[in-house]
């Protein structure tokens, strides 16, 4: 908290200084007797005004050149602040006190929203961050220019240079089952290993994001792969010993990138890394790349700096839609254990071991700032259960919402481990009821918080119920007439600017983002629906189309109206104001529409009964959920009892329990096989 308070105090002091300086300059410019330039010119009449102006311009140019990087970064940050305020309804930040105020830092984050992730961290962090970004994205127009202004470091990725290998391959199944083998033998059919592949390259099997490193090449149809962590899962996902197609991922020399990064860290800079590699729309982390561990160890060995690795959790709600919400959470830093440096220097298996251990700790720290679950359906259950469990009228902070979501997610995982992945029937029944309730809300187009207002007889507050009279109480409380009047007023205000300034851009950006989503989904091995690229592509489309549309309107006003120069300037200046105003007005109108929707549906016989049944359904569902939590919660220990939790410790324990359970299952399966 100390850093955050200090940062706040400094910003307030700087703001006060800026105000004083601004008004002092206004006074000097308003009165010639106090204007220092006029006084100087009066005392020295040989000096012309343009002499002073030329000197000032020269100083301005010099200052800009010397501080160009900082000024560009600041300008881009202001620009993206404006972008986020338009495209997001609410952004909350948790854990700013965990960001070191000075010195080098490595930020590691989940990658759930393509180009918006870096923007989100940039605008919520007080440090200037240089990101590692894919060279493929660096070469794209607009994106590459903005990335250069932000000081990003382009990285060539193997998957961007992947080529399809000749023929097909299979794996020796006997090598897979042997625990003593450090290599896996691969046989080819119609392959050209010696011509197409080099030692150190990787090959990637169908529907796999991760490649396996080539250890040796014995001929055109025979080679060996190196056994590393996660290889067993990749091999088991393939229909071996059948032959399958494969991609070749060439080995990329990243020495120049590492040197650039190490120089930034040595000078006290900060680096932003997305260790998962590419963005995705999954509900859990992808396997982390080893690059972040190599950078951290290299900096410790080269300059003796144990760089703090700060996890950043980007938690989006309706991430692919306009005016969504987000919570950015900064976790406690992770440091290298200095006693492992000697093993790192040994190279080979010892180096891989300590790097994997550090990656495991980084992964645990990243899980401690997000809500990770196995699949999207489970995520729906977790969010719905959290809303049902929350008491009516309670105002959750972002920290409390994150904490409760993680309690449900981690508790769900541990309960699954306790029952060995086979939940009892009453548990499955409760899950189905929660999903059915959420589906009913989605079909009716209402939110959970609106359900209490549908009950004409009683309204639930906390764990109690309070009697009320009939519809007049509800209508009075919701002020339906006020909503209708406000909605009509908002529609009138928003209609013209929204139609002229925003509607063409909105339709075009929606079509473009959907096109890019389909393309990204077809090219990706890890995306589910490709939602992670939609908002980024929509923003890029708007960056191009919005000023272009303003220029078209400005040109039309100049050519087809009798307006003079000042009037045209005023009109052109008003375009962004009216555009932003219409966005805010439209959003306000949409809120009113959502509030009115339940009352409109009450007039329709087909939906009236469904709406009337919802409060009782929710009440029964909440009671059963609380009863189930009280029954199973004590078996979860600190997750149930403790108010304050060390989430990094909790996620580490959950991972250890998962590994222990998988090991027990493997031993049991092996014993059955022997029998």
Automatic annotation (TrEMBL):
UniProt-listed InterPro entries: GPAT/DAPAT (IPR052744), Plipid/glycerol_acylTrfase (IPR002123)
Residue ranges constituting the Phospholipid/glycerol acyltransferase domain according to the UniProt record: 105-317
Record's keyword terms, sorted: Membrane, Transmembrane, Transmembrane helix
Bilayer-crossing regions: 21-41, 47-64, 71-88, 484-508, 539-560, 566-584
Top-level taxon of origin: Eukaryota
SUPFAM superfamilies, alphabetized: Glycerol-3-phosphate (1)-acyltransferase (SSF69593)
CDD domains with a match to the protein in the record: LPLAT_AAK14816-like
Protein name: Phospholipid/glycerol acyltransferase domain-containing protein
């Amino acid at each position: 908290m100390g850093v955050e308070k200090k940062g706040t105090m400094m910003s307030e002091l700087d703001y006060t200084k800026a105000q004083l300086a601004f008004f002092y300059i206004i006074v000097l410019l308003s009165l010639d007797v106090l204007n220092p330039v006029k006084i100087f010119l009066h005392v020295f009449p040989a000096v012309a005004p343009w002499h002073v102006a030329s000197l000032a311009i020269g100083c301005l140019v010099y200052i800009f050149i010397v501080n160009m990087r900082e000024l560009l970064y600041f300008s881009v940050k202001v620009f993206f602040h404006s972008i986020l305020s338009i495209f997001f309804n609410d952004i909350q930040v948790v854990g700013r006190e965990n960001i070191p105020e000075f010195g080098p830092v490595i930020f590691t984050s989940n990658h759930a929203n393509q180009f918006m992730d870096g923007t989100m961290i940039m605008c919520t962090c007080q440090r200037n961050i240089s990101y590692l970004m894919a060279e493929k994205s660096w070469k794209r127009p607009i994106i590459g220019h903005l990335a250069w202004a932000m000081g990003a470091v382009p990285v060539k990725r193997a998957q961007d240079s992947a080529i399809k290998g000749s023929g097909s391959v299979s794996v020796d199944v006997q090598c897979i089952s042997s625990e003593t083998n450090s290599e896996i033998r691969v046989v080819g059919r119609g392959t050209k290993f010696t011509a197409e592949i080099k030692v150190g390259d990787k090959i990637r099997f169908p529907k796999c994001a991760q490649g396996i490193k080539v250890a040796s090449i014995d001929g055109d149809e025979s080679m060996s792969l190196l056994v590393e962590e996660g290889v067993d899962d990749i091999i088991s996902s393939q229909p071996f010993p059948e032959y399958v197609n494969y991609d070749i991922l060439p080995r990329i020399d990243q020495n120049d990138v590492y040197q650039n990064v190490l120089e930034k860290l040595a000078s006290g800079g900060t680096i932003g890394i997305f260790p998962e590699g590419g963005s995705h729309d999954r509900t859990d982390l992808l396997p982390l790349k080893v690059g972040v561990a190599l950078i951290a160890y290299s900096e410790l060995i080269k300059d003796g700096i144990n760089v703090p690795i700060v996890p950043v959790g980007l938690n989006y709600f309706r991430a692919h839609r306009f005016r969504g919400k987000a919570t950015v959470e900064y976790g406690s830093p992770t440091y290298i254990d200095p006693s492992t440096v000697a093993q790192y220097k040994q190279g080979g298996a010892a180096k891989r071991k300590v790097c994997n251990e550090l990656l495991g700790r980084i992964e645990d720290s990243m899980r401690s700032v997000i809500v990770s679950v196995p699949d999207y359906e489970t995520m729906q259950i977790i969010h719905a259960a959290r809303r049902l469990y929350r008491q009516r009228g309670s105002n959750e902070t972002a920290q409390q919402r994150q904490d409760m979501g993680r309690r449900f997610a981690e508790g769900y995982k541990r309960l699954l481990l306790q029952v060995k992945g086979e939940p009892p029937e009453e548990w499955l029944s409760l899950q189905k009821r929660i999903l059915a309730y959420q589906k009913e809300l989605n079909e009716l187009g209402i939110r959970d918080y609106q359900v209490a207002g549908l009950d004409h007889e009683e309204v639930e507050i906390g764990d109690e119920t309070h009697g009320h009279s009939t519809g007049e109480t509800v209508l009075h409380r919701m002020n339906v007439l006020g909503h209708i009047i406000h909605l009509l007023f908002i529609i009138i205000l928003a209609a013209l600017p929204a139609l002229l300034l925003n509607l063409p851009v909105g339709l075009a950006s929606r079509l473009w983002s959907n096109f890019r989503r389909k393309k990204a989904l077809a090219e990706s091995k890890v995306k589910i629906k490709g939602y992670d690229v939609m908002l980024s592509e929509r923003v890029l489309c708007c960056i191009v189309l919005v000023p272009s549309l303003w220029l078209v309107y400005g040109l039309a006003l100049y050519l087809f109206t009798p307006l003079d120069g000042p009037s045209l300037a005023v009109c052109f200046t008003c375009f962004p104001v009216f555009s932003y105003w219409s966005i805010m007005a439209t959003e306000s109108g949409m809120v009113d529409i959502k509030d009115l929707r339940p009352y409109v549906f009450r007039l329709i016989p087909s939906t009236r009964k469904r709406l009337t049944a919802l409060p009782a359904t929710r009440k029964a569902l909440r009671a059963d959920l609380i009863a189930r939590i009280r029954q199973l919660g004590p078996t979860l220990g600190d997750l149930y009892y403790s108010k304050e939790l060390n989430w990094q410790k909790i996620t580490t324990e959950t991972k250890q329990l998962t590994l222990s359970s998988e090991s027990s299952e493997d031993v049991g399966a092996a014993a059955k096989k022997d029998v």
